[in-house]
Design a protein that fits this description.
This is Dirigent protein. It is found in: Secreted, Extracellular space, Apoplast. Keywords: Apoplast, Secreted. Pfam families: Dirigent (PF03018). Belongs to the plant dirigent protein family. The protein is mainly beta and about 160 residues long. Helices cover about 0% and strands about 50% of the residues. It contains no helices and nine strands. An eight-stranded antiparallel beta barrel has the order 1-3-4-5-6-7-8-9. A hairpin with a 6-residue loop joins β7 and β8. The relative contact order is 0.20.
Length: about 160
């Protein structure tokens, strides 16, 4: 019996929550701030570095080349959240568009990304939809390439996600 009129206890079995699965996803995303097909748009370009927000709709590809097979998009936003180093707070959805099991499913990531840190950067998976409903896990980001003139970059992603 619930102690509040707005809540109810549910059975995990009734929600079809069976054994949890662990899935590893690997791909690249392309953050394009310049060029003919911009996918990252600064919302307040006159701001200094701290507080700058950028909306993204970045392609996810199987290989680091932009013309390789597209499997989805990274949609959301990031902002510079540190006054002392270049660290983003990111709220993004990995939206899968390729035909197959993951089509129209999402993985949601929210956390701090110190983009200039050497090596692998880790952020939490906080949810998902479709196949990735009730998702939790982590993402490893590693900068594959970065153009200091345009700000365009390619990031290698490994997502380790628990889901039902």
């Amino acid at each position: 019996m619930s102690s509040h009129p707005f809540s109810a206890k549910l059975s995990a079995k009734a929600m079809a929550l069976k054994n949890e699965k662990l899935t590893h996803l690997h791909f690249y995303y392309h953050n394009l701030l310049a060029g003919p097909n911009v996918t990252a748009l600064p919302l307040n370009p006159k701001a200094g570095l701290f507080g700058r927000l950028t909306m993204v709709d970045n392609p996810l590809t199987l290989e680091p080349e932009l013309n390789s097979t597209t499997v989805g998009r990274v949609q959301g936003l990031y902002g510079v959240a540190s006054r002392t180093d270049v660290a983003f707070v990111e709220l993004v959805n990995f939206v899968f568009t390729a035909d197959g099991e993951y089509r129209e499913s999402t993985v949601t990531v929210l956390g701090r990304n110190p983009i200039l840190a050497a090596g692998i950067r880790e952020m939490p998976v906080v949810g998902g939809t479709g196949v990735f409903g009730f998702a939790r896990g982590k993402v490893h980001f590693k900068t594959y390439s970065f153009d200091t003139t345009t700000g365009n970059g390619v990031v290698e992603c490994d997502i380790y996600v628990f889901h039902y």
